[in-house]
Request: fold
Amino acid sequence: MCGIVGLLVKNQSMRANIGQLMMPMLIGMTERGPDSAGMAVFTSPVDANALKYSLYAPTADFSWKALEQAFNSEHSDQVTLAVKGNHAILTSAVDTVKVKSWIKQAYPQIHILSVGQSIDVYKDTGLPADVAARYDLPALSGTHLVGHTRMATESAITPAHAHPFTAGTDWCLVHNGSLSNPNSLRRKLQHEGINFETDNDTEAACRFLEWRMREGDDLKTALEHGFDELDGFYTLLMGTKDQLALVRDPFACKPAVVAEHDDYVAIASEFRSLAHLPDVKNAHVFEPSPKEMYVWKV
Amino acid sequence: MESLKFDLENTELRTVNQYLHRPAAELSGKNVVISNPNGAHNIAVGLNAEVNVTIDGHAGYYAAGMNQLATVTVTGSASTGVAENMMSGVVHVKGFASNAAGATAQGGLLIIDGDAGLRCGISLKGADIVVGGSVGSFSAFMAQAGNLVVLGDAGEALGDSLYEARLFVRGNVKSLGADCEEKEMDQESRNILVDLLAKSGHAEVDPDSFKLFGSARTLYNFHVDNAGAY
Reply:
């Protein structure tokens, strides 16, 4: 069992408070996922020639200042890290291949949680309320977000195994369910030169769909391929720089409910997480059908 | 009639359910309104008294499960397993219902005004279910007795491995499950349909617009001589 939440804010004046609006949604999914939690938020994009990297250090006493200085002297850059505990966001116009390989060599203990112009990712082990407090998630602002609470069933409880998973740029995915063919998917993608960070089934789905889109599929076509290739139970919620997308497996084994309002679109595993949204009484609440694609644009 | 209100915003669900589990004589005839259900699980489960309960909003999993005698109305939607294993009484969902509505229900009437999700009436054991909208795939899977009335459409594999339940569908059936076949509407079945339409607020609906589906009885060792025993 896991919990998923998604929120896309249409009312521009509410976007500064997306973290506050999201909090009861995430907390509402605590019983479905008490061991880890994570959040991807899409903010206004950085400069067109820059990218931002959400970084995770395994220890709380990690010196981000030292990393910042080392990065700047190595790349003749003037970046300033936005630090929240053992999490930091690095924004830089340095070539992304260089940035990633430098981090891997100079700081192998650092995980790159996401790369993109809009996406920031926070994820860690612990109760959703504790993870939210650790990374000050109520203070988030942005256009849309994708969150998850995890009850691990098929792989270890570590920060790296928490959702959301990301691949490529400005792409993330959360999953409630379990896939039965992640190993064959992983082998197939490894033949395409795609590297994996965990043995988690959701990472396989995330990298599969991102690979399809890099191969030229639009989101819809990639998801159609997903229906053919992903075997198992899933409700998947995905975020791109300007969209949220939702699919459920053909047997609808895992739940989802949607509230569409003039001001927002909210998605969750259960209505418990939608109940405290403003004016939800006047939202159109419905259960998404199995094997249908639901896409909402910012 | 005496009326009592509980607000789940400031009352523990357990307090409400414990009140509803008082001796039947104390509860009989009372009206109980539960506001701000907010998708909580297990609201008004295991009732066994002639009490009227209104859940004013969206209910979570297993609302009114195992119901006996009570009339439970959900003004919003109901999540997975509403009225599962109901024995008697009436459960009325005014919105939509999620998967496995009325699963294994043995008696009573479940009315869903909107759509029902997948596996509606799975393993139905004698209750009646009337769905104003459509039902999802695998509905009435292994249904043994009782009646499922669907005013809209049915999804894939309707009535798979069906026993002796009757399935009435007004709209399209995407596909029939193994051993489920269309039957001629006999007078007894038509009477059941007319009665259920009247009880569920659909008296104006033409019973002749429905098709009847039942078991082809090839998947189990059925002796037609024993049909009266069901």
